[in-house]
Fold:
Amino acid sequence: MIPSGAVDLELPQEHRLLQETIREFCDREVEPVVADHERARRFPADLVRRIGEMGWLGIPYPESEGGAGMDTLAYAVAVEEIARTWGSLALIVAAHTSLGSAPIHLFGTPEQKQRFLVPLAAGRVLGAYGLTEPGAGSDAGATRTSARRDGDAWVIDGEKRFITNAGRAGTYVVAARTGTRPDGSAQVSAFIVPADAPGFSVGRLEEKMGLHASATGELHFDGCRVPADHLLGREGEGFPLFLQVLDGGRISIAAMALGLAQAALEASTTYAREREQFGRPIGSFEGVAFMVADMATEIAAARGLVRRAAWLKDRGGPYRLEAAQAKLYASEVASRATSAAVQIHGGYGYVEEYRVERYLRDAKLTEIGEGTSQIQRLVIGREILGLRVG
Ligand SMILES: Cc1cc2nc3c(=O)[nH]c(=O)nc-3n(C[C@H](O)[C@H](O)[C@H](O)COP(=O)(O)OP(=O)(O)OC[C@H]3O[C@@H](n4cnc5c(N)ncnc54)[C@H](O)[C@@H]3O)c2cc1C
Structure:
């Protein structure tokens, strides 16, 4: 085992047990199917169902809401562990849990929780979250999708882009404009949209650089009607709701980054011990050993940031700053570590057989999704300076 924090003696026993169980599951059931699914760009529907049965699609939610009754730390450990084997599966789980389910957990009425969150957290239905649009990415306030009240229903028109679990989710949480404030900015509300809502459809799925087995696609709302009680939270108060959801989601993307970086470190360590050039293992050359040393050190630091953010969230304190720091740092560590892993593998790193090229492609997303690195720096700057930055 790598002296890098992979054996997490600092974790509480319950969390360590979860980590070990997921690791065994991933070694036994996930690893053998990764390469095939990635090559075929095939969504792992069977595995997602299995993971749901294991209770891993509702880790941080109370049992009364269909979840496993654990905490954010447990969830972060789980996402890291899954990403260590398969980035696509980790992204599916993270988008479902932190984005599709969290808004209902945080802002749902008791009826909404029973009807929508329980099946999500129990793993019977997959969730997704639609914030991004063609013209509204980093600037989520530029949302054009609109919703208007019509009798006892809301009618939604517009489109979303880059939505994880598109076409696979049964329940979508979606941002739509319901009015304009006096200063001209959008009044945004959140809606629960079941996949079979009339007027809702899934458009094109993206051909991505990495994470090939996760589905990323467009959502279309063409006079889409949902009953009035599918409004989530208060009308016009969706924007702070989405920001709060993103704070939590950033911890999971940071955990995913960590898992990819950890996988890169482990592959590099094995390879640097085994591969010989000039009659010696390449790991005995300082140029290679120092790359491994930097990877291991940065990963340990990133893990500390991820767990600090999770710990703060679990204690109910503010954690926006810490979640952004964890996401920024862990994602950049993942890109550096996975790139170093390719370098350490030389030509073998550039071909599929040794997997590290997949880690590198998958890691890049963690610097983009749920707020780019530039946006994380804006958030961190604002939180520290107390000024409007950007
Ligand atoms: C695989 C994948 C999965 C995704 N899943 C989801 C999902 O499930 N749900 C969802 O809603 N969205 C999802 N997204 C969308 C993702 O959150 C956005 O792509 C991301 O927020 C960036 O938005 P954008 O792509 O429009 O880029 P832009 O906002 O157009 O940014 C382009 C560049 O400009 C920079 N930039 C923008 N504004 C500033 C600024 N003020 N200061 C400095 N730099 C700035 C950015 O950092 C970036 O480098 C996903 C994206 C991908 C690729």
